[in-house]
Amino acid sequence: xxxxxxxxxxxxxxxxxxxxxxxxxxxxxxxxxxxxxxxxxxxxxxxxxxxxxxxxxxxxxxxxxxxxxxxxxxxxxxxxxxxxxxxxxxxxxxxxxxxxxxxxxxxxxxxxxxxxxxxxxxxxxxxxxxxxxxxxxxxxxxxxxxxxxxxxxxxxxxxxxxxxxxxxxxxxxxxxxxxxxxxxxxxxxxxxxxxxxxxxxxxxxxxxxxxxxxxxxxxxxxxxxxxxxxxxxxxxxxxxxxxxxxxxxxxxxxxxxxxxxxxxxxxxxxxxxxxxxxxxxxxxxxxxxxxxxxxxxxxxxxxxxxxxxxxxxxxxxxxxxxxx
Length: 324
Ligand SMILES: [Zn+2]
Description:
This is DNA-directed DNA polymerase. This protein is 50% helix and 6% strand. It is α/β, with parallel strands linked by helices. It folds into three domains: 155 residues, Rossmann fold; 45 residues; 108 residues, Zinc Finger, Delta Prime, domain 3. Zinc ion binds next to helix 3.
C-alpha cells in the first residue's frame, strides 16, 4: 500500500506518468513494461496508479474510481488483474507461469484491459522466463504486463529486450529539498539539507526519516571512525561511492572548521571533537592542506560528471589512502 499522499503527482514521477497516459490515449502503449523496483522513489505508487488506470473503463488521465471495473479492483477481486511473484524468495516456476498464461487465454470479463503485475521477475526460472517470451512478444489483445524486478540486470537479456524499460528519473537534490519542505510545511534544517544532498535518490525515505526523526546510521560518523580510530574503511561500490564522496567533503569541511576554532555547537560531530583534534595534531594537518583535499573532492565530482568511464570508487579510494 502506498504511503499517505504518495502518488503519481510526486514531481519526479510526473513526466513518466504523463508519457504513459499519452501513449495509452494514442493507442501506442507497448504491451510489456519493465519498471525497476525502487521503493524510495515511489515505484509502488506509480505501479498502483497505473494498474488502476489500465483497468478502468472510463479512464481519462486517472482512473475514475467509480466504474464497475474500478470498484472490483478496489474490492481486491478484479477478474482481469493478475499478480505473480516469488513466494518467500523462492524461484518462480514454469508451472506458475503456465497457469497464468492459461488464465489469460480466457476473454476479459469486464470489457477492459487485462493487466499482469509480475513482481521479482529476476526470480523466474529459465524455463519459466522462456515460457513467457512468446506471450510478451505477441500478447492477446489489450493485455499489459508490468514487470517490476528488484535486480533488473539479473533478467535474461531475451526477456529484457521484449519489454519497454520505464526507469524513474532520479530527482536532483534541489528538487528533493523543495518537495520535502513542502511536505513538512516548514523550512528544512541544515542537517536535513545535508541529507537531501546525500540521499537525493531516496526522497520517500527522507520524508519518513524527517517525520519520525529517526535517521539511518551516519556516513560522516562512520568515515570519521575509519580515519581517526582506525576502523575499517567503508566498501566503495559504483552505487554508493557518490554518497561517500559527499561524506568525505563534509568531513574535510568539519576538519577545516575545527582548525578555525568554530564553536562546538556548529560542528557536525561535537562528541568526537577531542579525538579528531588529537588526530589532526598527530599528523600536523593545516587548513591549506585540508582545503586542497576538499578541492580534490570537488574535482573528482566534476570529472566523473563530465566524463563517462572514469572509475569514481577508485579515485575516491586513492584520496582516502592519503589519510591512513
Ligand atoms: Zn473507472
